[in-house]
Design a protein that fits this description.
By secondary structure, the protein is an all-alpha fold. The protein has one domain.
C-alpha cells in the first residue's frame, strides 16, 4: 500500500509539472484566445486534481505493515 501511495504522489507531482508547462504556454506562447482558454483550463484542472491527490495521500495517515 505504501508503494501505491508513493506512485500516486509521483503522478500528482508530474501533473503539477505539466500544469506549470501548460500555464506558461497559455500565457506566453499561444496567441489564439480559444487555445489559450483550453490550455489554461486543462492546466488548472490538472493542478486541482493533483492537489486533491496529494491532500488524500498526506492526510490518509501512515500505512500499517
Amino acid at each position: 500500500m505504501a508503494l501505491m501511495k508513493m506512485w500516486f504522489s509521483f503522478g500528482a507531482m508530474g501533473m503539477m509539472f505539466i500544469a506549470i508547462l501548460f500555464i506558461l504556454m497559455s500565457r506566453h506562447k499561444i496567441s489564439n484566445p480559444f487555445l489559450k482558454g483550453i490550455t489554461a483550463f486543462i492546466a488548472y484542472s490538472f493542478m486541482i486534481v493533483s492537489g486533491l491527490i496529494i491532500f488524500v495521500v498526506v492526510f490518509s495517515g501512515p500505512v500499517s505493515k
